Automatic annotation (TrEMBL):
Domain Alpha-N-acetylglucosaminidase tim-barrel: from-to ranges: 152-486
Domain (Alpha-N-acetylglucosaminidase N-terminal) ranges: 56-139
PANTHER family per record: ALPHA-N-ACETYLGLUCOSAMINIDASE
Lineage: Eukaryota, Metazoa, Ecdysozoa, Arthropoda, Hexapoda
Organism of provenance: Lasius platythorax
InterPro entries cross-referenced by the UniProt entry: Hex-like_dom2, NAGLU, NAGLU_C, NAGLU_N, NAGLU_tim-barrel
Protein name: Alpha-N-acetylglucosaminidase
Alphabetic keyword roster: Glycoprotein, Glycosidase, Hydrolase, Signal
Domain Alpha-N-acetylglucosaminidase C-terminal: 495-753
GO MF annotation list: alpha-N-acetylglucosaminidase activity
Keyword Ligase among record annotations: no
Reaction(s) catalysed (UniProt annotation): Hydrolysis of terminal non-reducing N-acetyl-D-glucosamine residues in N-acetyl-alpha-D-glucosaminides
Length: 770
């Protein structure tokens, strides 16, 4: 309404008249969208003062560019710059030669800064590092950009498990800077949940033992929160709680200062087993085991949302959380993420939805329930349209915000008719488990984000990134981030050309050719197969692995060779070197698939000669993989482990965190319950985990060939577990935190060994091989 008053009565009157007439002609849901969501979501925005937001944006610039250079950028907050409910920035070069960036929030200003640096100064800022070389004279500019939607969302509930578990403030700070630079204005902020739960459990008279058997270790918090497991990797120490509380205050302050709205946790119904002792009459069901976790580590209770106790606990938790951290009125809650509701009755589902919302609403009458729509993908059969509709419409329209979690592959907004009126965010999930392995769906995100927004009756209010783990495949996230303001799809070839030029600081024909090739093949996956980072090298050895890719391997090897030619021009670029490691890693990953087929074939044909030679070649490949990864800063197990240990204050904690860090990326569970789900192609993991498994397996195959005995796979798997996997998770071996060797020298040695230029390479590119 404020907006109308400022515009003056006449304009407002015409505008209102226009809206009325417009409403008569256009599908009612479109108008409904603009009006209803402004009314219910309008308050989901920063309430920090303009001065603080401007200062926060300036600080980002200073951290990024240094004190002196950042003075050339004048940052001004102007909430009236663009339409209500969107973010706008405007950039001009003033007569003094300074760049003036106006924006509707701290985020919008920072986003504008990045927009200018990227599009006018050939700068590149990524998770892997930044390329910031400014021209001597800052280029002329006059541009005004408005976001397509209200929100740009960031993070999956698992990201804190797979990527940021061990981050201290410096890393969070860099990450929050990155969010603002990319226009992200809505982000999950889940740190320190356990500290508050622990407080509440104490108040409810749970014993320390009862709390410890529930809350799991740092690397497993997301899954404990979701009720999948309990206690594993724990207990959590007072140091951990204190640390995370301090950290969460820092995170929230910075997000709020910049104008990023943090999404806080709400009670979803998962409770410790001790609740049975404390509340014998409450209606609770033991959750089914998740991925064969034994009883000791699985199956907490789910408190029935319609039971009065749900309301009591939900209210208490949220109050306690808000008392400590304040609120921005938006709460994430996923009761049925990977478990089914107790009944299929529509009325029941309606009551459940209503009960979950009421618990939030009782504490905060402005509460918005943010829900990941993963349940509709995961339990596709259970969640029929009518059931989903009952559940979704049990909450007033606009008081729920849905993350269509993996829109690039399994969108639900179409099937569920724009979530029956609830606003949703189009999210690219892309990554599972933080695994490495190059892939992405450029063409899909370049089209379907627009289709989602423009479809009839669309309730789409944002775009988002929901990867389980970050620090991989940066390129696809950069493309996705642009979908937030672009009005039409980009020319992907041109886009990949620009990407390569920015990333390495200058145009280079080989680098550009490589990225354009990658854009058309590796990053143009359009299938429905689930990409989960499982390749021959990262899987537990067996005779049974089927590997496939959607592009031509031989072409990939040729491009690898082409990419390395860029070393003459770009050899000093840090990001080029990063990508040499990654592309060489990818080539070896593919080569291992090829070799595996030969090993398998010789084994089946009982050809000992050819078996021995292919097996030893495969093992050699692991050594080469280890050495190229060891040369890259961002591919070291040592870093992950040292960050984990840095969180500890005594030996016991250090041991525990080290085990957490190692178990998550290997066995994932005490007995390999979801083994290798979150595997990492890092130096240290290759040498001491992936390779020894294959070594043991190939030896066993050889023995069975030589002795003509049947292979006992049970025995081999037992040995792999007891001799390699488990010891790896408990070992306290120190791994380097500094890279070793010259990446380019190492890559050249590797390619000369593994690449044969004679290989024919011009078959079609989007073929699938199984
Ligand atoms: C916890 O125990 C205290 C002392 O025995 C008691 O006063 C309080 O009511 C108990 N709280 C709950 C929630 O049972
Ligand atoms: C945790 O914080 C509390 C309260 O500030 C303090 O009394 C306690 O000493 C801290 N403990 C650790 C291990 O940091
Ligand atoms: C528990 O809740 C379920 C689902 O609402 C209901 O079917 C069941 O009868 C309840 N049990 C008790 C003991 O109230
Ligand atoms: C969208 O709605 C318009 C008007 O109701 C209708 O003519 C058109 O066919 C619809 N398009 C689709 C793709 O459903
Ligand atoms: C191969 O995989 C299938 C399906 O996972 C499984 O049923 C079969 O037992 C496996 N065979 C061997 C030899 O491991
Ligand atoms: C890299 O830097 C070194 C030292 O500054 C210089 O001698 C060399 O020419 C540079 N190489 C390339 C490819 O730019
Ligand atoms: C075994 O494999 C080697 C190498 O591929 C080949 O030269 C040889 O003929 C094979 N031996 C038999 C008996 O097939
Ligand atoms: C395979 O090995 C397991 C474990 O060592 C053993 O229990 C089993 O009897 C063996 N099976 C055969 C067929 O030898």
């Amino acid at each position: 309404m404020l907006k109308f008053i400022r515009m003056g009565a006449t304009v407002a009157l015409w505008l209102q008249l226009f809206i009325v007439i417009f409403g008569l002609f256009v599908s009612s849901s479109q108008c409904h969208k603009l009006d209803a969501f402004q009314a219910t979501l309008g308050h989901i925005r920063s309430r920090t003062s303009p001065e603080i937001q401007t200062k926060a944006a300036k600080d980002v610039a200073e951290r990024l560019l240094g004190k002196e250079i950042s003075k050339l950028f004048i940052m001004i907050l102007d909430t009236d710059l663009g339409p209500v409910g969107k973010d706008t920035f405007k950039i001009i070069k003033n007569p003094l030669g300074e760049i003036e960036i106006r924006g509707t929030s701290g985020v919008a200003i920072t986003w504008g800064l990045h927009y200018y640096l990227k599009n006018y100064c050939n700068v590149h800022i990524s998770w892997d590092g930044a390329q910031i070389t400014l021209p001597n004279t800052l280029p002329e500019v006059r541009v005004k950009i408005t976001s397509n939607d209200r929100f740009r969302y960031y993070q999956n509930v698992c990201t804190v498990g797979y990527s940021s578990t061990w981050w201290q403030w410096k890393q969070w700070e860099r990450n929050i800077d990155w969010m603002a630079l990319n226009g992200i204005n809505l982000a999950l902020a889940f740190t320190a949940q356990e500290a508050i739960w622990q407080r509440l459990y104490r108040e409810l008279n749970l014993t320390k033992e009862e709390i410890d058997e529930h809350l799991g270790g740092p690397a497993f918090l997301p899954w404990t929160r979701m009720g999948n497991i309990r206690g594993f990797g724990g207990p959590l120490s007072t140091n951990w709680h204190n640390r995370t509380i301090r950290l969460q205050h820092q995170i929230l302050r910075r997000m709020r200062d910049l104008g990023i709205v943090p999404v806080l946790p709400a009670f979803a119904g998962h409770v410790p087993r001790a609740f049975v002792r404390l509340f014998p009459n409450a209606n609770m069901t033991k959750i089914d085991p998740w991925n064969q976790f034994e009883d000791k580590y699985c199956c907490p209770y789910l408190l029935e949302p319609t039971d009065p106790l749900f309301h009591i606990i939900g209210e208490k938790f949220l109050r306690m959380y808000i008392d400590e951290f304040g609120t921005d009125h938006i709460y994430n809650c996923d009761t049925f993420n990977e478990n089914e509701p107790g009944s299929t009755e529509l009325i029941y589902l309606r009551n459940v939805g209503h009960a979950i919302f009421s618990a939030m609403n009782a504490v905060d009458p402005k509460a918005i329930w943010l829900m990941q729509a993963w349940l509709f993908v995961h339990d596709f059969i259970f969640w029929t349209e009518s059931r989903a509709k009952s559940f979704l419409t049990s909450v007033p329209t606009g008081r729920m915000l849905i993350l269509d979690l993996q829109s690039e592959q399994f969108p639900q907004y179409g099937r569920l008719k724009s979530y029956y009126g609830q606003p949703f965010i189009w999210c690219m999930l892309h990554n599972f488990g933080g695994t490495l392995g190059m892939f992405g769906s450029a063409q899909i995100i370049n089209q379907r984000t627009f289709e989602g927004r423009n479809m009839n009756g669309s309730t789409m209010v944002g775009t988002g990134l929901t990867p389980e783990g970050i620090n991989q495949n940066y390129v696809i996230y950069e493309l996705m981030n642009e979908m937030a303001y672009r009005h039409e799809p980009v020319d992907l070839d041109a886009w990949f050309n620009n990407y390569a030029t920015r990333r390495y600081g200058a145009w280079n024909e080989y680098a550009v050719a490589t990225w354009q090739y990658l854009g058309r093949t590796v990053y143009n996956f359009i299938g429905a197969q689930k990409i989960r980072g499982h390749y021959v090298i990262t899987r537990r050895p067996s005779l049974n692995i089927s590997s496939w890719v959607w592009y031509d391997r031989k072409n990939f090897y040729s491009m690898w060779n082409v990419f390395l030619k860029a070393r003459y021009g770009r050899g000093n670029s840090t990001l080029y070197r990063h990508d040499v490691v990654d592309i060489t890693r990818q080539a070896l990953q593919l080569k291992a698939d090829d070799l595996y087929m030969i090993v398998l074939d010789s084994y089946k044909k009982k050809n000992i000669t050819s078996f021995r030679s292919s097996a030893s070649t495969l093992l050699e490949l692991f050594d080469d993989l280890e050495s190229i990864l060891a040369s890259g800063n961002n591919f070291l197990l040592g870093t992950w482990l040292s960050q984990a240990k840095d969180m500890a204050i005594d030996e016991e904690e250090r041991r525990s965190y080290e085990y957490n860090a190692k178990n998550q990326i290997t066995l994932w569970g005490p007995n390999g319950e979801i083994r290798d789900y979150a595997n990492k192609q890092w130096s240290g993991v290759i040498a001491d985990y992936f390779k020894p498994r294959w070594e043991l397996f190939l030896n066993a195959l050889e023995i069975s060939l030589v002795q003509r005995t049947k292979l006992n796979t049970t025995e081999i798997n037992n040995r792999i577990f007891h001799e390699v996997e488990r010891p790896f998770t408990f070992s306290t071996k120190l791994y380097p935190v500094e890279p070793k060797g010259d990446t380019i020298d190492i890559a050249m040695k590797i390619i000369s060994k593994w690449y044969n230029e004679e290989t024919p390479s011009l078959s079609s590119s989007n073929t699938k091989t199984c």
